[in-house]
Amino acid sequence: MKTQIYKTKKLGQYIVFACVVLSVTFFEACDVLDKKPLDNISDATVWNDETLIDADITGAYAQTTVFVNEADNVVSANKSNFFAIYFINNVSDESKSASNFAGNAYRFKFGNLKIQGGLLEYWERPYNIIRVLNELLERLPNTNVSQEFKQKRIAEVRFLRAFNYFAMVKRYGGVPLITKVQHKSDPESELRPARNKEKEVYDFIISEAIAASKELPDVIGADDWGRPSKYAALALASRAALYAGSIAQYGTVELDGVIGIDHNLASRYYQESYDASKEIVSSARYALYNDDADKVKNFKDIFLKKRNSEVIFARQHDGSDKEVGGAGWCYDYFQCPYPNGWSNGNHDAPYLEMAEAFEYKDGSPGKIKEEFYEKDRLVTMDELWQDKDPRFFATIYTQGTQWQGRTLNYYNGLILPDGSVQQQGSYEGVLANGEQKYWVACGFGVMKYLDESKNNGDGSTAGIFGSKQDFIVFRYGEILLNYAEAALALGKTSEALDAVNQIRTRAGIAQLTSIDVDKIRQERRVELAFEGHRYWDLRRWRIAEDVLSRNMCGLKFILDYTTRKFRIQKVEKIDGATNTPLFRHENYYFPLTHVRTNQNPNLVENPGYK
């Protein structure tokens, strides 16, 4: 969107009042939006001016940080996401954080999600946003702006409000559904509302998304790119209903429905997800991006080419927004290999298990052959990764990857002609260690979304920090996988198989001849890797207690001086001998925390937190 973000003094007062009513801390939602107060503009003028109304809506978009970053609260009191954009990967089984600022992520990962909360919080911010959106919904019908403008913006606001509630319900379960502007004169029960049932929140999200889809435009023009279309709203319904169906199928109802959904409702939600997904598919508005015969480059370009055929809804970036109140985008600077990334680079290090999740082209499992680990065995990188799913090379970089005209070297140790291993210095001009400083972190880095042409050594702030790739919130590949999962749950096996095979054909690997839930989960794991889905998927399937409570591995490379081949070693317990990841049963829902329940005694805490 090109609308400038600014606020009037009058509107700023409304937002401050919202913070008082909700008994929450007022942070960037006011600070960012009130940067350019227009003190002399009357209330009537504001609500009858399309540009000023758009400023309100644009501010709400800017503050919906979860479009890009699920952990914007992790680093400091000002909620900067400067170091946190990849932490959603680190708390899953995808990767290990190699950042010096990963303390909260590690406490969270190793079972220390306690009553005080911590990483991935999203409570005060969305209620500030929802206050603004509720006021827009109350005011817009009575303004003197055009009917077309009203219709579009009301639908847009409903979409945005539903998205914020979805970000909350997937964290906490049932939350208070506030759908009108609160006033100090309201009854105490409305000023300090109790939690709605989880089912009620999901029903609200899905119904609002569907309603918005009927009013939003089919196509978004260039000037409005970044606003939701009809199909973005349907994509939200597709995702939210799939989550609700999973929770009904695999979860347990507790607190009289505040968390959990009745098992008998699973099919209903799967049907709603299926219907929303099918409407997107049948529209033929979107397609799997498949413009390049080179399958590796093609998959990379999904995330680098703006507005391509697969993108349904994306958060725009032009390289100038390093932080922006937690909604900024400095991806390259932390994900790039050394020396292109900040400090030692490679701050997000995929586990060996994530690398092995990518199958071979013929559809066989992607695990490294056991004979390659034999002590006297030397292998080339071509032998190690030969015929691997092209998405592996487009998603992960490792020893031997070509980057900006050079070869990345992750090896640690040099096998000399006499068979001994040199650990430091060099031998006959060959370094004993590769230049990638965080080789011990796993032996891999995240390639997805990286812009290889970007110069992260540029002396300007924007050049160093700001990335220009749009962050995709909804894409067609996810919709096909949602469609497949919902279809399978409804017994539509052939449709599920076809949807998954479309993904695999585009990837360049063998089609499946049969389908089951594990195969769909496997396909989601690799297709959507490092896009912020995996952690939430494991939770909604209720398998996180198993998957996220395992010791993970890395891969060590040792260079042979004579042959220039490598000895490889599996590094067990890569997170540390005493740091076993732990996901407890209660962690399927985050704690509301003592702070929030003390402020509002009507909020019941989630089970397991004391």
UniProtKB/TrEMBL annotation:
One of its GO terms (cellular component) is cell outer membrane. Residues 310-609 form the RagB/SusD domain. It holds the Pfam family SusD_RagB. The keyword Signal applies. InterPro entries: SusD-like_N (IPR033985), SusD_RagB_dom (IPR012944), TPR-like_helical_dom_sf (IPR011990). Its main location: membrane. It is found in: Cell outer membrane. Residues 1-29 form the signal peptide. Residues 33-241 form the SusD-like N-terminal domain. SUPFAM superfamilies: TPR-like. It comes from the Bacteria. Transmembrane segments: none annotated. Keywords: Cell outer membrane, Membrane, Signal. Belongs to the SusD family. This is SusD family protein. It comes from Hoylesella oralis ATCC 33269.
